[in-house]
Design brief:
With 277 residues, the chain is mainly alpha-helical. It has eight helices and five strands, in the order αααααββααβββα. Bound molecules: zinc ion.
Length: 277
């Protein structure tokens, strides 16, 4: 396949530029976040055209809208969680890099399995953001997915009923929208079993996200105020020391792994259940 379709690239770059600029203007993305979204968006729009662009846009739009929901409650939590409503470069890469690489793989191989895996990666990212953004609004006390001890709202690895239902809803929504949109670009025969495999894989990826968040993700204690936090520094000009987890495993690393697990689960499921290879 030739990479050089000038009109596709022109449309892709202009569209990605507009979306990145608007997102920056409305504080959905930081400067770095807008920059990486612009690059990945250009590639997705240019190589994937309408069919691949719709699921990416639906993920981004739904996550952005939900991040602004319940803004006051969330801004109180921001001091001890790693996520804020304004996504930075690493957050954008943690969710967008795997789908973008899968799209490039599809483009050069023209093997439809990569298009399923592309949707699965985005469905997992959607499940994660929907679960996080809606779960923290729940009045129910979250419990750790490992051991079910009560935790504070917004802490990684904590789960609520609302968050779990939101994850399943996000995975299902993106799965249905994604496979329907792809059908416009590359008409393929897909069966309900493929959709179910994809949704289960994305949801399981999100379960892995919570397990890794509870066990593996670095947690710190603030030297000044004594809060347990996932972000450093916590209070300005004050050091933190690690009390749990692995030093390099922050929320972005966990998200990247979770998305990769979802892709792996989906690939295995498609091969063994749907016999697509
Ligand atoms: Zn502090």
């Amino acid at each position: 396949m030739s990479l050089w379709h000038p009109l596709d690239w022109l449309i892709g770059i202009v569209l990605a530029g507009i979306i990145a600029a608007v997102s920056y203007r409305f504080r959905l993305l930081t400067g770095g976040g807008a920059f990486s979204a612009f690059f990945m968006g250009s590639v997705v729009f240019a190589l994937g055209r309408v069919g691949f662009s719709i699921p990416m846009l639906v993920f981004f739009a739904s996550s952005s809208l939900l991040s602004k929901l319940g803004y006051e409650r969330k801004s109180k939590l921001v001091s001890h969680i790693a996520k804020t409503s304004q996504r930075d470069c690493m957050q954008v890469l943690a969710n967008g890099l795997v789908p973008t690489l899968l799209l490039i793989s599809w483009y050069f191989s023209q093997n439809d399995i990569f298009s399923f895996l592309y949707v699965a990666a985005l469905a997992c990212a959607t499940a994660d953001t929907w679960a996080t953004e809606l779960g923290v609004l729940s009045s129910q006390q979250p419990r750790s997915i490992v051991g079910f001890r009560p935790t504070s709202a917004g802490v990684s690895g904590g789960i609520t009923l609302v968050g779990t239902v939101a994850a399943l809803a996000g995975a299902s929504f993106l799965g249905v929208v994604g496979l329907s949109a792809l059908n416009l670009e590359i008409p393929f025969q897909f069966h309900i079993s493929c959709l179910l495999v994809l949704i289960c894989a994305a949801f399981l990826g999100q379960v892995c996200d919570s397990v890794m968040g509870a066990t593996w993700q670095a947690r710190y204690i603030c030297q000044r105020c004594g809060s347990i936090t996932e972000v450093k520094p916590h209070c300005p000009d004050s050091a933190v020391s690690r009390v749990a987890g692995v030093s390099w495993a922050n929320n972005d690393v966990v998200n990247l792994f979770a998305g990769s697990f979802a892709v792996l689960f989906c690939w295995v499921g498609l091969a063994f259940i749907c016999e697509i290879t």
